[in-house]
Design brief:
The chain has one domain. The protein is about 60% helix and about 5% strand. It has a three-stranded antiparallel beta sheet with strand order 1-2-3, with helices on both faces. A hairpin with a 5-residue loop joins strand 2 and strand 3. It starts with a helix and ends with a helix. About 50% of the residues are buried.
């Protein structure tokens, strides 16, 4: 693990961002030319199987090829993570908890791979490397064979969370109310060393970087063991209420912010820092959060009041955050909750990277996302009336209205719920919409 940590510490996004800039505003199918050694995002040997020999990899791909590869896979891993989350919610509503668990795990894994790739860290099948600020590559597992993708991804993400140099990426990439997390922390504690508290900061955001290993074990049960011999159930009403809650915290505000979720996550972050830098036992209402609230950016202060950030009002966490801390028996709802939080982080980093690469976000991202929008039925092929990304919420809002009416009926069991939902059930399993509006404008 020490080798992984040292290599992760050397990783840089600079060459990845430079390569990403060359992709705007084109379809993802053209991002890597056919002459690229890994045109479909997979590093293969001459036998067509995954390349595992690091020296052979260095020979087969130039440094520029490797940076271009990470630039191509990073945003697509994030998009694919939201697709897995979509299918997981479908499975939850359908009563297939094992499929929900299996798919939510892969949503988490793709979110992790996206964060790492944007940070200059490539996790492939038996081949793991990092790119530094000079474009040089290093083997995460020098002197020994790389483990499988799952083990390597969670080890690398845990190392990423423990590395102060990566804290700046996290805290500057995630925006709330038009200000970065770093800006908000600095507004309250101008001389704070919070940037060095990355592992606590990420944990404060509800993203347990060690959870991937536990969830991998639960995924194995659902993926390989007989489902009927390993019962895992959730009532129709509980499933529907959870899906309703997930969408409520992802509702776009002001062009694409996840305001309801983010204001609670910001409070967690500030309170974590408070407990680290303020005298022991100081109440939130008697510390810097309360006293210096006016120093926050105006929109941040308007969305998250002094009393809210100090837990004087609305003291309870969102149910999603509480459920994300439930690990018992590979609880599917807990796994889905952790997937939502990890993908929210990955989406913030994706948005920041696209902006750094010169993308005009929605306008330039459309070339990349057009095929997904058409394939998922979000808009017609070639339509001149394609909605703005934030308008993709409208179909979900109507579906949630239908779901809310159904929940209060008695029963509803899954048979009656399915019959009453009709087309609305389709919209409730289209989380790729949330990814699109999360890119903002």
């Amino acid at each position: 693990m020490s080798m992984v940590l040292s290599v992760v510490a050397s990783a840089s996004d600079s060459h990845v961002i430079t390569a990403l800039a060359g992709f705007r505003p084109r379809s993802a199918l053209t991002w890597l030319p056919s002459v690229h050694p890994a045109p479909r995002g997979e590093i293969l040997g001459s036998n067509g199987r995954p390349l595992r020999d690091y020296n052979a990899f260095v020979t087969a791909l130039t440094e520029a090829d490797a940076a271009q590869l990470l630039a191509a896979v990073a945003p697509n891993h994030c998009l694919d993570g939201w697709s897995y989350l979509s299918r997981s919610l479908d499975a939850l509503l359908s009563g297939d908890l094992h499929a929900a668990r299996h798919l939510s795990y892969y949503a988490q894994l793709r979110g992790a791979l996206s964060i790492l790739a944007f940070s200059g860290i490539g996790i492939f099948n038996g081949l793991c490397f990092a790119i530094d600020a000079n474009g040089r590559r290093s083997n995460l597992y020098s002197g020994r064979r790389s483990p499988g993708t799952h083990v390597a991804a969670w080890q690398a993400l845990e190392a990423w969370g423990d590395e102060p140099a990566q804290a700046a990426r996290f805290m500057n990439a995630i925006q709330f109310g038009g200000a970065s997390l770093f800006d908000s922390v600095q507004a309250i504690w101008p001389s704070s060393t919070a940037i060095s508290l990355v592992s606590q900061i990420v944990d404060a955001w509800g993203v347990d970087l060690k959870s991937g290993v536990r969830d991998h074990d639960a995924r194995n049960i659902s993926s390989y063991n007989p489902h009927q011999l390993n019962p895992h159930t959730c009532s129709a009403v509980d499933a529907a209420e959870f899906v309703q809650h997930v969408w409520s915290v992802l509702e776009p505000v002001s062009g694409g912010d996840y305001v309801l979720l983010d204001r609670h996550l910001l409070r967690r972050l500030l309170q974590q820092v408070h407990q680290t830098v303020e005298p022991p036992g100081t109440p939130f209402s008697a510390g810097a959060i309360f006293a210096r609230h006016a120093n926050l950016a105006p929109r941040v202060a308007g969305l998250a009041s002094r009393d809210f950030l100090s837990s004087v009002v609305e003291p309870d966490d969102l149910p999603l955050l509480a459920k994300a801390q439930v690990y018992s028996s590979g609880n599917a709802i807990g796994m889905i909750s952790r997937a939502v939080l990890l993908l929210r982080v990955a989406t913030g980093i994706t948005r920041s990277a696209l902006k750094d690469a010169g993308f005009l976000l929605e306008n330039d991202a459309l070339g990349w996302l057009e095929a997904t929008g058409v394939d998922r039925g979000f808009w017609p092929s070639g339509s001149a009336s394609r909605p703005q990304f934030a308008e993709l919420w409208d179909d979900v809002a109507l579906a949630l209205d239908d779901l809310g009416r159904i929940i209060v009926q008695v029963p509803p069991d899954r048979h009656s719920m399915s019959a009453l939902l009709g087309m609305s059930s389709r919209y409730l399993g289209q989380c790729e919409r949330a990814f699109m509006w999360g890119l903002g404008t």
